[in-house]
Amino acid sequence: MTTKISAPVLFFFLFLFSIYTFAEDRQTHAKTVRETVWTWDKPEFKNYELPSGYENESAVILARHQYIAATSKNRFRMNALLFGDVNRELYYTNIDRRMVKINDLSALTEFAELSFREEVKISGYMRSNSLKTIVGARVIKPDGSIVEVAIDEESVAMTEGKKEKETLKKVAIPGLQVGDILDYFVCDEMELETYNASPEIFTFFAPYPVLKYSIHCEFGNKLTVEYRSVNGAPEMRQTTDADNNYILDVEAENLMKVPLLEEMRWISPYRSLPMIHLYALNNTSKLIYKSPNARKSGMYKDLPYDEYLNDSKALLAAQEKQMFWMKETDKKVKKTVSAYIDQHPSMSDEERAALLYGALRFHWPNDYANYPRAKFVVRLQQLFKEYNVSHKLLFVTSRFGSRKDEVVSDDDLLTGLLANDNQLFFFMNRYRYAGEIPGIFQGETASTVEVVKYAMNKKYGIEGSTGQYEIPESKAGDNLLISKIEVNFQADNPTQLNVKRNLKCTGSMKEDYWSLVLYEDWDKEMREELGIEQTLMEELQENKSTRKQIDEYVSALEDRKKTQKDNVEMELTAYHGQKPNKVIDYSFGAIGTAINRPSLDYTVSYTLDGLVKNAGNNLVLEIGKLIGQQWEPDERDEKRNVEAYLPTAIRLDYEIEIEIPEGYTVEELDGLPSVYSNEFGGFCSGYKLEGNKLLVSASKIYEKSYVPVDKWNEMLLIAKKTNDFQAKTIILKKL
Fold first, then answer.
1. Closest to 138 in 3D by CA, of 186, 173, 187, 101
2. CA 537 → CA 114, 310, 523, 533, 534, distances in Å?
3. How many CB atoms lie within 10 A of CB 597?
4. Cα distance from N-terminal residue to C-terminal residue, the chain
5. CATH value of 477-518+560-734 in 2.40.40.20, 2.60.120.1130, 3.30.70.660, 3.30.70.120
């Protein structure tokens, strides 16, 4: 049953969209908004009883309602040439109200404070966009009494920087106690001239039980609204009002309960959890760039994939006309390419493609606002054509985004290039080598286009034959971490260990250590691969415009090195679950960005307490902890009800070499060997003695990057076998 909004309320929201709303006295306007929201005709917000069976929940969302209203209006402004200009601006309001029963101290701590950004303005020459936020809150006591929070008086501005610029406002909820109900809302009011509103994602899941959730949307008939329900979310009902404005409604009860997403392991929410994606687009605006394929005013449910593919192609084609500013970059790229080809005249097609990508990637300006992904892809395509490299443009979804048949925007499609039918190239690609495929694209079916002509004014965007390409999925051995750990006991303090840890990582396993890499390491490795003899410092000194910035650069480099040292210590702390005593040394042999050196090679030496304990004259070594902290499944993991998306299949190999101190022998080794495997991976370990060296090996493998819910227990078993090993100890017996 649809809950209708009363005529006075509807009149209020129509008034809300008028341009005069934003000029109204803020506190008076906020007071009007609060009075209106508190008097919503929504029965669920008047039912304060907690149903039986929820007493042990930390918090319960008794009711939640979202009200969204948007319209576009003509507005006269002076333009950049000081002529009168009329454009359709978007007025958008989103009110999200929730009524929460507080059952314990944990929930009380979470809901005892609200934070919000009161006002944001993004201005350009003669143009402006603004967001204003109004918050309301009231506490409902067990006896039914209601105390409204004086938000405007209670809120405190949070500032940052020397000029104490206001960033957020925070308000503590006075008098809130366990057993109370917090009834609060956040109202965002937007006036947008050169932007569309951010997409709405209505989520039908939550970390707390949600007993009733409803959504009501009203859109002016000059807007373009595109939406889709996925993963079992309910369908929205579409109607129109007397003025032919579009109305969407949906309700749900007892939403799916899942932990906070940031606390979940291996989650792809866009593919696993019920939600509705909705875009309200002001496509009649003359100031918002859009694809020639952009839909006209109206409601569009479940648009086919090809619509968004054409959008993406048309937007990519628009970059072809933006290459005038690439002259300086092109000059550097072609100088590097020519010099390399002169030294390597018999290059294969694959080597030529990698060279062009590497040179463009290396010289690409560090200004992603003016030199975005799309421009890089188009310029690389042009270089491939110029140097006779067989290629196709590639459009692909991410494994951690919408499925191909469930996209709701051209933003859901990422672009790259397929060269020689077997090499894939993507924008920048972080510290991967040329042609290395990021895990987010592996296993996806991409759309391809052989470019004949860019046609930015046509709906299809690019002329050329189309096709598909199945992006291969890597195996566990392609995403490998080999950890060689050398351990010896300090002679004067055998409870302290000297540790040298060397890591060689391939594929997705490199990503965990990128935070330790300096830009200068990448720059040096790329120069070596591209045959550029000039160093970065020599290049800075040669250029007049950068010569005067050298001192500033050197100072910034020193700061980055300090940050790197901190990151090294943080990585060791995360690995062992405790800080090292002292970091002695660390270095990179390679960072894995060169094709001929695809592995990241990192070595760190340090001292560590806590793994060795005295037992009379003997020593007890917690040997299992040398493989670092491992995932220990908790109760939430045991009850998981969502499929798992790993970054890739992975393998972790540990090779531990322990020097047995003179005067000791080692015992309790029989518990070290183990073997376990199932369809999704396994764990194995073993040991051998060679003179005064104890050599221990351990391997953990996750064979598949996707695990359905009914197979999740297989992953738990692998984790438990790993943890069994991690708990192992050995005894060094004094002779």
1. 173
2. 49, 45, 11, 12, 8
3. 16
4. 82
5. 2.60.120.1130
- Residue spans of the domains in the chain: they are 7-303, 313-473, 477-518+560-734
> Average pLDDT in the 572-598 region?
96
Burial of 21 (0-12, 13-18, 19+ CB in 10 A): middle
Cα angle for residues 350, 354, 355 (degrees, 5° grid) = 115
pLDDT at 369 > cutoff 90 = no
Q: What is the pLDDT of residues 168-214, one digit of tens each?
A: 889 999 999 999 999 999 999 998 888 888 899 999 999 999 999 99
By the 10 Å C-beta count (0-12 exposed, 13-18 middle, 19+ buried), 28 is classed as exposed
Residues 6+ apart with CB under 8 A from 670: none
Please determine, for residue 8, whether its predicted confidence score (pLDDT) is greater than 60: no
Mean pLDDT of 251-278: 96
Residue 2: HSE in the Cβ half-sphere, 13 Å Cα cutoff: 14
pLDDT surpassing 50 at residue 223 = yes
Residue-wise pLDDT tens digits, 49-63 = 999 999 999 999 999
Q: Helix, strand, coil shares of the chain as percentages rounded to 5?
A: 30, 35, 35
pLDDT per residue as tens digits for the range 373-406: 999 999 999 999 999 999 999 999 999 999 999 9
- The overall average pLDDT reported for the chain is 91
The answer to whether the CB of 424 falls within 8 A of the CB of 394 is yes
Domain 7-303 adopts which CATH fold?
Answer: Immunoglobulin-like (2.60.40)
Lay out the sheet containing 414-419: strands in order across: 423-426, 414-419, 391-396, 445-449, 466-470
Across the chain, how many H-helices and E-strands are there?
15, 39
Tell me the C-alpha distance between 220 and 285, whole Å.
14
The SS3 call for residue 519 is helix
Q: Which three-class secondary structure string do you get for 318-351?
A: HHHHHHHHHHHHHHHHHHHHHHHHHHCCCCCHHH
- CA dist 369 and 389 (Å) reads 28
Structure-token pair, residue 536 = 């970065």
**Looking at this protein, which amino acid is placed at residue 99?**
M
Distance of CA 285 to the CA centre of its chain: 30
Helix (H) or strand (E) holding 163: none
